[in-house]
Amino acid sequence: MTTMTASEDHDSLTGWLAEWGECIAGLDFARARTLFVPEVVGFGTWSDLLVGLDDLEARQWRAVWPAIAGFRFDLEASWTEVSPDRRLGHLAAGWTSTGSHEGGAAFERPGRCTVTLRRAGADSPWLGTHTHFSLNRGTPAVSYPSRPSPDPARVPGEPGSDRIRS
Predict the structure, then answer these.
(1) Total-model pTM
(2) When you count CB atoms within 10 A of the terminal residue's CB, does the N or C end of the chain come out lower?
């Protein structure tokens, strides 16, 4: 763990990240939405600029989460920092998951992310305002659905495609 943050704030940020990781692994889109502000902005492994929670969910989360398995953040190696007023925080962490090639063979799918969060006060819950995910160099950019999704995602612009870009 690397931190420029008091232990209490570091723990609250990594607790937020752990909860979001559970949402990703469990395909819990509804619960994940409660962790973000409606005006969130993101960049993802699949989509470029995403503006707003609906866009982030539709074009990144639903396009990727059903195509991966075993997602988890590396909380022990995470980095956190909190503003002096303790209302703005950001973190950086690695993550791992397993993707599937077209024929079904599994591959390791590691990456990294940064997240910016805010809260109303030091005792209020964190809400994500910005996310940026990227795959580690050399990781295949395409993964195929390996498990059922509440709403199976399709690659926008590719009608009928079962391929999902990571």
Answers:
(1) 0.85
(2) N
